[in-house]
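Pilot study result, target chain (353 residues):
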Amino acid sequence: MTTTTSTTTSTTTSTTTSATAALVVLGTADRLRRADRELLVLAGTVGETHVVVPDVPGDALLDELAAHAVATVHTPEGGPGDRLTTPAVALAEAAARETGATVLLLPGTPEAKDVAARLGVRLEAGVITDVVALDAGLVATKSVLAGGWTTRCRATSPVLIATVRPNSVEIPADRRTGITTDGTTDGTAAAPDGAPAGARRPRVRTHALEDTVPAARVVGRTELPASGRPALGEARVVVAGGRGTGGDFGPLEQLADALGGAIGASRAAVDAGWVGPEAQVGQTGRTVSPQLYISCGISGAVQQRAGMQTAGTIVAVNKDEQAPVFEIADLGIVGDLKKVLPQAVEHLRALRE
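Predicted structure:
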């Protein structure tokens, strides 16, 4: 049983909603990431945009949201707490009912999909995952069956909940705060001070929530060491290695750094202990949709394809000319990756000189 009461930090006493509203559920109250901006751009094509954040937003975030014409930011009283999933669900449910949102958009992360599924039950809404496009009629496009088919589907319920794959939405140039002109970063650079000229900061709505649904609690956190590379799920370039690397990811890291990309890996490489599980791409790992995916020493079986086949351009480097990855590659190179990749890095560096 969930009961909800709400208070507001704004002096405005009335809430204005439009006939069509979209609610974006964000997992951070800090600066926007590229994937967050993609959700906001997509929401803007639906109607009036509202946002849910897990903690009190700072001025920098409010300025960034103002650039996306966000009307209201919904936040929980007392912060996110130590409970997993259920606080985010309760907050998003309260915000959705208050705004009358017909579309709820979430990132394509495992955590967000958990939230989406629970919201679907509470709001009696249809849930579509791994969306890569959403048209004006709320018809979603997604890739299914290990990337072998592209489908278009529409929820028959009044409310649609969709999780969106990163790198699926083009961000207009005037909203690319923190993204370099070549598009190789993940949008984490600092934004300029102050909201854009003419932009109005969104109203902040604080909800006091009482949610007694059982939930796991966080008892400790361990930060991953910073690599200086973009997050795998948001990177526009991914260089992935498999069994064919022999455990030496040095050439892949050099190429990834030259391209401003992230490191990925097959399950075989992760199981061997060569890289951490956070880098695994595939059916039992992460699903990525970068503009460029470079497969190095990976055979390209269906399990791997399920996690990367929607990439814009696929380049494969493998000594085995019969490797299945060449069937889906836009460019295939038959050769030793330890010879091919250093040549590529040398050429890229020469181009920048």
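One observation from the pilot: The chain has two domains: 2-211, 237-352. A full batch analysis is planned for the follow-on phase.
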